[in-house]
Design goal:
Blueprint (H helix, E strand, L loop, with lengths): L1 H20 L10 E6 L1 H8 L3 E13 L2 E16 L2 E17 L11 E22 L7 E27 L2 E15 L9 E2 L3 E2 L4 E13 L16
Length: 232
């Protein structure tokens, strides 16, 4: 209970700081935005079986259309009365965000967006200290299932917003619906979780992130090829 209250105060403080920083906005400039998902720091306090990290980057490739990439790692680690389970891997998401906030009179450096992602991961899982109950022959303890590598992919639809904090810093949040497309199977042991996706048994999962973002004022220009002058 105390953990939830502490997390509530942290998020409330970050929101207040973002609101105080929003009015003093500079003219809009394109740039490469890089961010870190702060919610990954919070997750182990809520769910002690999971921990990881995630970084993101996006750039406005067309007006109000942003190309985005997210890379992260997630680990599932817990103990049950009959076994210990461990799974971990790296995941990648690729996609686009459309900023529809410009149609709602939001401030120039703020965003309200809808996003689409294709995501994939390669991960390994294993079980140790397995105990098999057998009333007739007695219990067997100490069994292990070694690392087995699996792959999975899924599709995401997200909705979120980003607000200017100060200088080139922003705060943003988004919520996603994750739809599993496919995953390899393990005939020995079904995976408990898929890094970046969530519970492996679910055909759909929900996700949320809360990120601190720094916008590098770097505009990419493509040089046009000059046409040769006739007569040269």
């Amino acid at each position: 209970m105390a953990r939830k209250k502490t997390l509530k105060y942290i998020f409330s403080f970050l929101l207040i700081v973002s609101w105080l920083g929003s009015p003093a906005q500079k003219p809009y400039k394109r740039g490469l935005s890089v961010g870190a998902d702060l919610s990954k720091i919070v997750v182990p306090f809520i769910d002690t079986t999971r921990y990881g990290w995630e970084f993101s980057a996006d750039y406005e490739i067309l007006k109000n259309m942003f190309g985005a990439v997210e890379i992260g790692s997630e680990t599932f680690d817990f103990s049950k009365p009959l076994y210990d389970y461990h799974a971990s891997g790296v995941y990648t998401r690729l996609g686009v965000d459309y900023n529809f906030g410009k149609h709602l009179d939001v401030l120039p450096n703020d965003k309200m967006f809808i996003g689409l992602r294709y995501a994939f991961t390669t991960f390994a899982h294993k079980a140790e200290n397995i105990t098999v109950k057998n009333p007739a022959w007695g219990d067997y303890a100490g069994g292990n299932i070694g690392n087995n590598w699996l792959v999975a992919n899924w599709f995401e639809i997200g909705l979120g917003m980003r607000t200017h904090l100060f200088n080139n810093f922003h705060l943003g949040w988004s919520a996603q619906v994750k739809i599993k497309l496919g995953a390899t199977t393990d005939n020995t042991m079904a995976p408990y979780g898929i890094p970046g996706y969530g519970r492996a048994a679910n055909s759909t999962n929900m996700g949320i992130n809360y990120s601190l973002i720094y916008k590098i004022p770097l505009e990419i220009r493509f040089k046009k090829k000059e046409k040769p002058v006739e007569g040269e």
